[in-house]
């Protein structure tokens, strides 16, 4: 089961959240479903629990005289698709008549009022169940709503703006998409949907990713420093070997001779450790100065050849 499907299942089973807001949730599912007009009222979903909740809420709220049909199909890529339809024209009119006043309420909602905010959370829940998908946060932060018709497109924008959810939009295969990329915004949406456990999971994944990235940056920095140290040491050893061949290390002044021998014996030792290994110990800059002297001496010998 995908992360998105698992989340929708969690929401559908959260009765303490759904049922106090069932009119708003059902309104959101209808408005943002595949079709919501007199000719066709239907929902397309890959989630069995969403299909059951859609039909169940309509039955509970509206006096349906015939039936609501759930048809199961297999898509070209062998996924299950549940198509839920309100069958008769009379029932579709009854559904539209029941929910028509809610659309005006939706437009007039003031998110600063607690009751209105709760209503908007219910509509958002219905929208998410009907037309949204969310990526596994282990892979990416991406939440998208698919607007299947013009009214859904317009209403999604109004809904997200009222809830202060920043979004972008694009088009895919002729359908309008409103999407959210911010992990913080996605966490907020999940909290509004009553999916507290999943919101905490996203937060934990984000913390883990941040820590992993920090460790990687530190490791990369340390690796770069090691590479730099090894490269510099290899160049120094080459210079010292040239001096050894040309004039011999014993001909060097005591201070340079000690540093030259120590570098030959410890090719991968950083300057700070070389400094402490001398007798008496020197500062890092002192060791670096002596090594530069050795390199300059080697260059002079090289030029005389």
From TrEMBL:
Matches recorded under Gene3D superfamilies: Homing endonucleases
Origin, by domain of life?
Answer: Bacteria
- Where would I find the WhiA LAGLIDADG-like domain in this sequence? 123-212
The record's GO molecular-function terms, alphabetically, read:
DNA binding
Name by which UniProt lists this protein: Probable cell division protein WhiA
What does the entry give for GO biological process?
cell division; regulation of sporulation
What is the native source organism of this protein? Harryflintia acetispora
Q: Which one Pfam family would you cite for this protein?
A: LAGLIDADG_WhiA
């Amino acid at each position: 089961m995908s992360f998105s499907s698992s989340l929708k299942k969690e929401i559908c089973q959260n009765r303490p959240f759904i049922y106090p807001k069932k009119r708003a949730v059902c309104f959101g599912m209808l408005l943002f479903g595949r079709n919501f007009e007199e000719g066709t009222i239907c929902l397309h979903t890959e989630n069995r629990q969403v299909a059951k909740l859609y039909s169940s809420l309509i039955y509970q709220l509206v006096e349906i005289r015939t039936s609501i049909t759930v048809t199961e199909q297999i898509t070209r890529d062998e996924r299950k698709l549940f198509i839920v339809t309100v069958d008769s024209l009379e029932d579709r009119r009854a559904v539209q008549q029941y929910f028509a006043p809610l659309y005006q309420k939706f437009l007039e909602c003031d998110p600063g009022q607690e009751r209105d905010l709760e209503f908007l959370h219910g509509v958002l829940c219905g929208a998410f169940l009907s037309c949204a998908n969310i990526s596994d946060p282990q892979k990416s932060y991406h939440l998208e709503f698919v607007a299947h018709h013009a009214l859904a497109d317009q209403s999604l924008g109004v809904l997200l703006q009222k809830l202060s959810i920043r979004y972008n939009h694009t088009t895919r295969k002729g359908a309008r998409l409103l999407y959210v990329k911010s992990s913080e915004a996605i966490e907020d949406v999940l909290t509004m949907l009553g999916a507290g456990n999943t919101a905490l999971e996203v937060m934990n994944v984000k913390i883990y990713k941040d820590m992993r990235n920090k460790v990687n940056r530190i490791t990369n920095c340390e690796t770069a420093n090691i590479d730099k140290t090894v490269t510099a040491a290899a160049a120094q050893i080459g210079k010292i070997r040239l001096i050894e061949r040309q004039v011999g290390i014993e001909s060097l002044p005591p201070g340079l001779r000690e540093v030259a021998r120590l570098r030959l014996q410890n090719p991968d030792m950083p300057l700070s450790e070389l400094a402490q290994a001398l007798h008496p110990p020197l500062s890092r800059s002192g060791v670096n100065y002596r090594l530069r002297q050795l390199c300059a001496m080697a260059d002079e010998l090289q030029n005389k050849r």
